[in-house]
Amino acid sequence: MKKALIFSLLAIGQILFAQELALVKEKSTMGYIDRSGKYIIYPTFDAAKSFSDGLAAVKIKQLWGFIGKDGKMLIEPSFTNIREFHDGICVVEKDGAWMYINKKGEKLTMPSSEKLYDFNEGLAFFKINNKIGAFDTAGKVIIREEYDVIKPFQNGFARASKNSKWGIINIKGEIIVPFEYDDLGEYSNGITWAQKDKSFGLVDGKDFKVIDGVDKIWDFNNQPLTYAKKNGKIGFVDKTGTWIIEPQFEKARSFSQNLAPVCLKNKWGYIDPTGNFVIKPEYNDAEVFSSDNLAPVRGKGWGFIDNTGKIVIPMGYEISASFGFGEKNKGFNQGVSRVKKGGKWGFIDTSGNLIGDKWFYNAELFQN
Known about the structure:
Shape: flat
Distance between the termini: 32 Å
Structural class: mainly beta
Low-confidence stretches: 1-16, 322-328
């Protein structure tokens, strides 16, 4: 019986930790709701931040502390400035000094740095004499300080610059793409775009294949095709650099759910991977489809269409910032979209119903 109770409590704790909550503002106070619109933590805070890594910063009497998803204070307010937890560690300011703390609020000893950086994929950067390296959560230096710039890691890889040239490194500090390019894109499934002198092309391993006449290439974003510009027009190339859809569009965005938004004659529509229009260009703007198979389109305000082009949610909204998937997509994520109407923010479901039947003075994205 005792074991069953322990397992039940553990299961409840895991569910609570996994639950995504959104920070919302009611007049002058802030609280947190779940995806049904129910308050999990009632609005009692004058200032607060979104959840990150299971904790959220809240301000009480000019000092910041951290709460858990049950609303209980886990780290007492004692900080004058805070960032967010990542990999169990947060950068905070106390008594005029910046430092790292763990989830118990304990100060951590880390390598010295001219600036403190947030953790990202298990590493934090450090700067010595304007050179960048990285250390892990135990404070062990993994990448020595030899780079001018290191961009945030994504899926274990990061763009880095040394001696005015760009390359790709992994989280072990190993060089994946040599430092011989003037610009580079994100590394995705073993490939990235690159610029060398005035030529643009694709890097597959250590091989650079120039795509003639191209003057801009966008990231693949884990898709088999990406878009590129040639002679002022945009088309789509595959990972060998072959034009699959010839340059003909004024603007474009990434493929998602096998459809890509493109602009032709100042109107947006959607094409399939063969370049044929599935949804004719008739909108003032359009964003990529989410996994909910809905995409935001703009006419008189923003609404949402399905992958046949049918308007599912009528226009009249402003739409939110990125939910963090695809190409910084604006719109739905796991059945919920953040929208603004009449000067207030709220969340709608895939049928256009207002979740919780309530609008807020402000509402942030759902975070874990």
